[in-house]
Amino acid sequence: xxxxxxxxxxxxxxxxxxxxxxxxxxxxxxxxxxxxxxxxxxxxxxxxxxxxxxxxxxxxxxxxxxxxxxxxxxxxxxxxxxxxxxxxxxxxxxxxxxxxxxxxxxxxxxxxxxxxxxxxxxxxxxxxxxxxxxxxxxxxxxxxxxxxxxxxxxxxxxxxxxxxxxxxxxxxxxxxxxxxxxxxxxxxxxxxxxxxxxxxxxxxxxxxxxxxxxxxxx
Amino acid sequence: xxxxxxxxxxxxxxxxxxxxxxxxxxxxxxxxxxxxxxxxxxxxxxxxxxxxxxxxxxxxxxxxxxxxxxxxxxxxxxxxxxxxxxxxxxxxxxxxxxxxxxxxxxxxxxxxxxxxxxxxxxxxxxxxxxxxxxxxxxxxxxxxxxxxxxxxxxxxxxxxxxxxxxxxxxxxxxxxxxxxxxxxxxxxxxxxxxxxxxxxxxxxxxxxxxxxxxxxxx
DNA sequence: GGCTTTGCCGATCGTTCGTTCGTTCTGGAA
DNA sequence: TTCCAGAACGAACGAACGATCGGCAAAGCC
Lengths: 218, 218
Hints:
Structural class of chain A: mainly alpha
Shape of chain A: elongated
CATH superfamily of the domain at 74-209 in chain A: Tetracycline Repressor, domain 2
Number of strands of chain A: 0
CATH architecture of the domain at 74-209 in chain A: Orthogonal Bundle
Mean pLDDT of chain A: 87
Largest interface: A-B, 24 and 24 residues
Strand content of chain A: under 5%
CATH topology of the domain at 74-209 in chain A: Tetracycline Repressor, domain 2
Oligomer: homodimer
Distance between the termini of chain A: 39 Å
C-alpha cells in the first residue's frame, strides 16, 4: 500500500466556472491533451514544448504558466494515468477477495483493460519514463514496483495453495506482465476485438503459464 | 567481431601527442561502440552526435567521415545486430527440421538468446526504432514482420498437426513474442541465471500457452 | 621525390532548443 | 471607477543541435 497511494485529487482548485466553450480557462486541459499526442508521436526528447504549445493552439509562455517546464508536464501526464490504474487495481482486488487465482485474474484484467483504455500514456510510461529526470522518475518507478509485488504475491500464494503449478514463479510473473503490457503496442481501438473478450483471453493465457488446473500427477 | 572490439589503448587527449601505432584505423568501430552506449543511455533523440564523438575520443567531423549522419549511424547499429539475429534464426530453424513444435522452440530459444547476447541493440530496436526516419525504418520493420510470420506459421502448423491447442493463435503468438522480447528489459548479465536454462524455461512457458501436450478430452 | 588517398581535426554555419522576461488583456471585487 | 489577480502573449536569451567546410598529417603507390 505504500507506493500505491497516489494523489487521487484530479481537478483541483480552480472553480468550475467555465463559460460556454470560451477560449479562456481550458488552457490546462488543452495543453495536457496536446502533450499526450505529441509526446506519444515523438517521444520525450523528440518533442519540443513549442510543438505542444502549437498543437494546443496556445503560446509557448502559456505552457509555462501552468507547468514549470517540460519535465513536470510529462510527469503530470503519466502520473495522472497511473493514478487511474491504481484506482482500478484497488477496486478490482477488493472485489476479488482472498482467492489467489481470482486476484491474479483481476490483476491481468485490470492491466489489459488499462493498456487499452490508456494506450497512449501506457506507451509513454513503458518506453519514455526512463528519460525523465530522476527526481520525477524515481517515485513513479517505485509505484510500478508495487504492481510487480501484487502480481508476485498472487502467484506465490497460488502456488502455496496448490492452485498454481510452476517451477519458476518469477519468470512466470515477468512473462504474464510482459504479455499484458504489450497489448498497448498492438491493440487497435477501431478493430473488432472488444476489451472484455481480450481480457478473458489473457486471463486464460496467464493461467496456462501458471499451470492452473493441471493434474498434479507426473 | 562482436562487442569485444573497441576503443583500444589510445587514451590520447587531443591531437597533439598521437602515438605512432594504434589510434589510426579503428575509428569506425570506436564510433559504433560509443554510439551503442550513448544511444542506449539516452535514446535516439536524447543522444547528440557530439556525445558519441566525445565517448569515442574523436572529433565530431570524424563521425561524418564514416557515416552520413545521425540516422545512418543509428541504422547501421541496429541493422548489424538484426543481421546477427537472422543468421542465428536460419541456422537453428534448419536444424529444427519440419516439426512445428521443434521450430517454435527454436524460435523462442534464438530470440531469448539474442535478447541476452545483444541486449543493448535489442532495446534500441524495440524502443527507439520508431523515431528513425522512415526511409531507414521501413525496411527494418519489414524484416521484423518476417519474424512474426515465422512464429505464426510454426504455431498454425502446430495447431493443424494437433500438437498445439489454443483457440486464439494470434494472441498466443503476440504473448510468446512479448515475453521473449521483454527479456532484454530485465536480464542481468552478471546474475546467476544462465542463457541455456533461461531458454529452456521460456520454451516451457511458450508451450504452456500453446496448450502443448494437453489432453484433447474435455 | 612527387601525387593521391585515407583518416581525422577545428571552426563555423543556420537552426532549434528550453527557459525567462516584460507586457497585455479580461473579468470580477472594492 | 479603480484595482488587481488570473490568463495569455511575443520577443528574446544563451546553449546546444545536426551538418558542412577547408585544411593537414600520415601512409601508400609510382
